[in-house]
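Note to self: keep these together.
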Amino acid sequence: MKKVIHQANTRGRSVYDWLDSQHTFSFDQYYDPERVNFGALRVLNDDHVAPGQGFGTHPHKNMEIISIPLKGALQHGDSYKNNKVISPGDIQTMSAGTGIYHSEMNHSKTEPVDFLQIWVLPNQRNTHPTYKDYDIRPLLRKNKMALIVAPDGSAPASMLQDAWFSIGEVEGGRSIDYQLHAMGMGVYIFLIEGEVKVEGTTLNRRDGLGIYDTENFTIEVIKDSHILLIEVPMA
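Structure:
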């Protein structure tokens, strides 16, 4: 039997509205141990940053982090001397491991930057920190979900977790059939733009829905939509 957790209106908030980071890294918001994640998915930040602004240098430890620009130019810097500007069509992964300091700034002085930053709990702790960026533009095709993160080498990026990320723009009137990769997995559906229906629940822009205890599900695309799927272990 499919189990569904629905969370609407996640813009500017984390995966659940009781986990309200707004990318402030205020960990006192994460107190309740029973409500801190969807399986291995820890946080989904939906960030809008004004020109010349951003998140100054701050630490992370034992967390797998992926940033996905949606608009504008995002500049990353860290304590391992990585410095990179990424834009829509690029993704950035960082394995914080034993500890890393980094910053994210709007590279533009005139245009805002919108980006998603997603934190996933690792399956290994205290590893050496790493940073990588990838150009996923060759994978992006209209009406196709592009696999951008996978643990088995089938996608450009991976992380220290059995996690699969897919992203794509799909026209209204079509549907997406999704097959989970293993038992004990769940999928968090984040609707970047558009309107879809899943298991009888309608999602609109910046809505999210988690689904688990199933082998597959179908997304009915009502309006042209930009969709992110995050599959992670639930235990």
